[in-house]
Specification:
The chain has one domain: Rossmann fold, CATH 3.40.50. Helix content is 29%, strand content 24%. The strands form 2 sheets. The chain has a 7-stranded mixed sheet, with helices on one face. Strands 6-9 form a two-stranded parallel sheet.
């Protein structure tokens, strides 16, 4: 019997995972939960789902997924915090995070890594817990970056590719692998409240950031 899956979020990586789930003999993609409001700069899960006749939760709220046990929930750049009672519905819930954990919890991890002058970044797949990006790690990939030349979009595209590779490697072992707890001593969390501190790393390129910052003054 196929395991039912719910996919939440947006973007190219979410689309690749949607295709993988749709074609896989072990999973039934029950529905997708796109971000709401939607993003127009990247793939929208609702567009993908309507082409495939997969159910869409148009509200973007995980709470609106029909009642019942969810075997697997996958979050890919989903912008809402999942509530404990919803997580409890899931036999397994995982998040693909565009940053190395526990060092870069929260939002805009790529932007902050470049702002902080890091020479290494990463992608982490972890179990979802009621906290923010603090769940046990299933797999992680780290790769070099160069803040002197890399734009946010450059590292973002690498994250998509590394995230896709990690996902395909993880899935055959997902139900048997033992996740590793994060080290809280190394943890750092970035919230939306400190977005303004990113300066010229606020958006995909420094030129775009400077233009938007100038217009906002």
């Amino acid at each position: 019997m196929k395991k039912n899956a719910v996919l939440l979020g947006k973007g190219v990586l979410a689309g690749r995972i949607a295709d993988w789930l749709y074609d896989n003999e072990q999973y039934q993609l029950f529905c997708v939960v796109p971000n709401n409001p939607c993003s127009h700069w990247t793939l929208r899960l609702e567009d993908w789902a309507k082409e495939k006749n997969v159910a869409v939760i148009d509200s973007g709220r995980a709470a609106d997924v029909p009642p019942g046990t969810i075997d697997l929930a996958i979050s890919v750049t989903y912008e809402k915090i999942l509530k404990p009672n919803w997580i409890a519905r899931c036999t397994k819930a995982i998040n693909i995070h565009n940053g190395p954990l526990p060092e870069y919890r929260g939002v805009n991890p790529i932007n902050w890594a470049l702002k902080n002058g890091e020479t290494e970044h990463g992608v982490t797949i972890h179990e979802i817990t009621p906290g923010i990006d603090d769940g046990p790690i299933l797999t992680i990939a780290r790769f070099p970056i160069n803040p002197a030349v890399d734009e946010v979009i450059d590292v973002y595209e690498r994250c998509i590719n590394f995230g896709w590779k990690l996902f395909k490697e993880l899935m055959p072992n997902l139900w048997t692998i033992r996740p590793q707890p994060q080290d809280p001593e190394r943890a750092h969390y970035y919230s939306r409240a400190v977005f303004s501190q990113l300066g010229d790393r606020s958006f995909f390129t420094r030129a775009e950031s400077r233009k938007k910052l100038a217009l906002s003054k």
